[in-house]
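Narrative progress, year one. The postdoctoral researcher (J.K.) led the effort to move from monomer predictions toward full complexes, under supervision of the PI. The following entry was the first complex the group processed end to end, covering 641 residues in total.
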Amino acid sequence: MIEFRNISKVYKMGEVEFVALKGVFIAVQKGGFISIMGPSGSGKSTLMNIIGCLDTPTEGSYYLDGENVSGLTFDQLSTIRNRKVGFVFQNFNLLPYASAYENIELPMLFNGKKNTERKRRVNELLEMVGLLPWARHRPTEMSGGQQQRVAIARALAMDPPIILADEPTGNLDSKSGHEIMDIFSRLWKEGRTILMVTHDPAIAAFSQSTIRLLDGAVQENGAAH
Amino acid sequence: MRVQLLHLFWNEFRKRREKTSLITFAIAWGALSLLLLMSFGRGLSNAGSVNFKGLGNTLIMVSRGQTSKPYQGLPRARRIHIHMEDLELLKRQIPGIAMISPEANNNHSISYHSKESNRSINGVYPCFAEMRSQVPQAGGRFINDLDQEKARRVAFIGWNVAKELFGGGNPVGKEIRIERTPFTVVGVMKKKQQSSTYQGPDSETVYIPFSTFCQIDFQRFLDRIHIRPADPKDALFMENQVRRILGRKYRFADDDANAVNFWNTIRDYETGAKIFKGIEIFLSIIGGLTLLIGAVGVTNLMYAVVKERTREIGIKMALGARRRHIVMQFFLETSVIFFKGTLWGTLVAFNIVSLVNLIPVGYEDFGIKAYLLRPIFSFDILIIFLVVLCVLVFVSGIFPALRASRQNPIDALRYE
């Protein structure tokens, strides 16, 4: 489903070049639950961004569902982000001025889904994450765990096959963190592919296998727990 | 663009509305200035042309002159007089004359009861009134064809003459005396604006039928012939025709500019109209610049807004927003700010123009008031205004919107 062939990413900051990823080969099967670990600056986020089509590799090719997405335009990548990938961020990244309902609705607005369909889907998702009574509340009125659940619901709005989570429990207390992880486990069992960046081995324990990164290279791939 | 997206954009805009109120005011102010300057400029220009027409509306006046160069052995500095039969000659030979009238005048004493005055008495044809924009006040009339035919002793008097002899009373039907001959007043001239005169303004003049004038004050020469061409565009051509015909008769060169004198109001009018149009355009440009300052302010604000919402832009991009969605959002916000500002500006401008037009303006003293207090808010001004506005909205909105859409989603997401 996800295949990296010799992916490198180099950032240029003026004269200085920073190699974030060098010659990465990975392959993730459909339905996998992978955690990505490694120290700060090892290239975890860059890897996630490229998988999520937010960033493009400097070298190499990236196949998503058998399609080479390395050379696509911004708008084509937008469509992929919209339909195939759901993002969950460490700091939730909800729109502060919008209610939970509106935040969840957002990806469907960019896709032009019909009003009735959106309404049905948003309510379904709110119920799934247990926040139906909070539909009209803004993120600032919710706890971190609740916000992250809204963010997960938003990631699922377009029913994407892949969920990318960048330290989803990093800003949460352990109880909320476990609630979140329960949801991820459920999603995985429903057949979604989940990739998750984490520092916490306890969180990584939920996954099937782990990719360890160090200085932009894959150090270990697929070790079971 | 989906309606739902517009709804989202509107909600986001509404939640930050208070930040835009100052800049909305700047746009309103700019729109107000532009509209007012255009309206007042148009009013000025209009007052100018009304004043030119006060002397006479599309009118060529021919009067006596003096040759300025020798011709066929005749010396220069010969006086050329105009006679009554010249009028018939011109009428016969020049097609396209709509109206023609002689004018002979002399100063005479006029009196009503004990009041006496010395005024210019002019003998003219009935068509003179229309050529010279002379309209009788209610209850009166100008001299007519029958008056002319029968050489009736009737007089049409300027409003200042009426005031002098009759005070506030109604002069129509009253008998005045010109020298010792009794005349019946048939009408009083309605007040009009007049910016140029010869021998005093029309308001101080007495008009009687030309035939009657010949009986009381026989003159060999005419003072003037008034001609109105059927088509104002022929004015210059007709002037040349008149000069050639009279030149053949009185033997002076076709290009002798001084042999007979012309006062061509159409030419004056065109020059004057250009000057006033120039002022009008100048004022409009100043107004446009004021609005431009507002537009620059909006661009500035939008750049700040884009920066402030960088993270939100990143989030939207991650969720699948295309570039045009982002462009649209910021461009629409610019448009909404402009729309609100100009709506207020236009309303206030419209009301100011309407209110100013309520201030009474006395036309007898064609002073500064007539130029300044009659702004015109016309349809074409509105069209020009809207075109300028659209250009400004586009220019000031598109660049911040493009900057917003061209951000790198990763950097935008990381922005604090």
